[in-house]
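// run 5 | inverse folding | seed 20
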């Protein structure tokens, strides 16, 4: 996979790929403030075409982050640091998601807290 991406970056398609990526992202960027769901409504919009655009835009960002990470951050420069950061990332994800669920289910939803209040409560609570 890395080899194929490296081959693509050395061709004339590389600039066109970047421009195409930015164009598709601009189309799929969620910039609409109507038909919105609530904080725990994925993919945030209740309108089906907006859901499709939002999900495609999210996958575009994930693909870009994975490609950049595989290209520049996939080397083990120190075994101890590598193991510490990988382990801590998994622990941080698992531990904060538990608190997001607890706060969302037992505080935000029962008390019908609005988006701004729920955002700060989640941010400070996790």
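// decoded
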């Amino acid at each position: 996979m890395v080899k194929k991406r490296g081959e693509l970056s050395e061709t004339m398609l590389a600039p066109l790929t970047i421009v195409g990526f930015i164009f598709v992202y601009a189309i799929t960027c969620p910039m609409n403030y109507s038909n919105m769901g609530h904080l725990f409504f994925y993919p945030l919009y209740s309108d089906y075409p907006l859901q499709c655009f939002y999900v495609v835009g999210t996958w575009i960002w994930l693909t870009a982050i994975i490609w950049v990470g595989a290209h520049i951050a996939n080397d083990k420069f120190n075994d101890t640091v590598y193991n510490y950061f990988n382990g801590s990332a998994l622990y941080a994800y698992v531990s904060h998601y538990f608190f997001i669920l607890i706060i969302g289910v037992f505080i935000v939803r029962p008390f019908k807290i609005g988006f701004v209040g729920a955002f700060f409560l989640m941010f400070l609570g996790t």
